[in-house]
């Protein structure tokens, strides 16, 4: 039996670490895509853009964290709440929800890699 390879779609609010995580996973040999779901009213944009994705990861961050990571952000916390509303379906359907506020880039990558290993084990059974 041929096992499926993990293909990861990553959604989340601005400055949660989507692009950085996608780069880190790709560097580790795992196909991963950052999806700008937070800017779209298309409820399941990740499925339309990457229908081959079989793992959905949602990253989250508080407004204070987003502001620290990206000082150039010109919007307030209400914009982040709007992004979370747009991500509601993704949050409900994600395989892994990960707040990144208190995690380093490497911590986030390692947690997602550990999740992927668990996913692979389930695929084998």
> Helical region count?
6
What order do the helices and strands follow?
EHEHEHHHEH
In terms of quaternary structure, the protein is single chain
Number of domains: 1
* CATH architecture label name: 3-Layer(aba) Sandwich
Q: Quote the average pLDDT.
A: 92
Look up the CATH topology. Rossmann fold
- Strands of the widest sheet, in order across it, are 2-1-3-4
CATH superfamily descriptor:
P-loop containing nucleotide triphosphate hydrolases
Share of residues in helices: 40-55%
Structural class estimated from helices and strands: alpha/beta
Provide the gyration radius in Å. 14 Å
Give the overall shape.
globular
| End-to-end CA span | 11 Å
Sheet having the most strands: 4 strands, parallel
* Beta strand %: 15-25%
Number of separate strands: 4
CATH class: Alpha Beta
Structure description:
This is NadR/Ttd14 AAA domain-containing protein. InterPro entries: P-loop_NTPase (IPR027417). The protein has one domain: Rossmann fold (3-Layer(aba) Sandwich), CATH 3.40.50. It is 46% helix and 16% strand. The chain has six helices and four strands; from the N terminus they run E-H-E-H-E-H-H-H-E-H. The protein has a four-stranded parallel beta sheet. Helix 1 crosses helix 6. The protein is globular.
Please outline the helices and strands:
Elements: E1 7-12, H1 18-27, E2 31-34, H2 45-49, E3 55-60, H3 63-69, H4 77-86, H5 88-93, E4 96-99, H6 105-124
Parallel strand pairs: 1-2, 1-3, 3-4
Protein name: NadR/Ttd14 AAA domain-containing protein
InterPro entries: P-loop_NTPase
Organism: Symbiobacterium thermophilum (strain DSM 24528 / JCM 14929 / IAM 14863 / T)
């Amino acid at each position: 039996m041929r096992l499926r390879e993990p293909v990861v779609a990553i959604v989340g609010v601005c400055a949660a670490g989507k692009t950085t995580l996608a780069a880190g996973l790709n560097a580790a040999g795992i196909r991963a895509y950052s999806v700008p779901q937070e800017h779209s009213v298309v409820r399941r944009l990740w499925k339309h853009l990457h229908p081959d994705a079989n793992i959905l990861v949602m990253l989250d961050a508080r407004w204070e964290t987003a502001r620290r990571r990206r000082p150039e952000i010109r919007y307030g916390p209400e914009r982040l709440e709007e992004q979370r509303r747009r991500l509601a379906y993704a949050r409900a359907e994600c395989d892994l929800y990960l707040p990144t506020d208190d995690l380093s880039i490497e911590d986030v990558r390692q947690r997602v890699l550990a999740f992927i290993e668990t996913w692979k084990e389930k695929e084998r059974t």
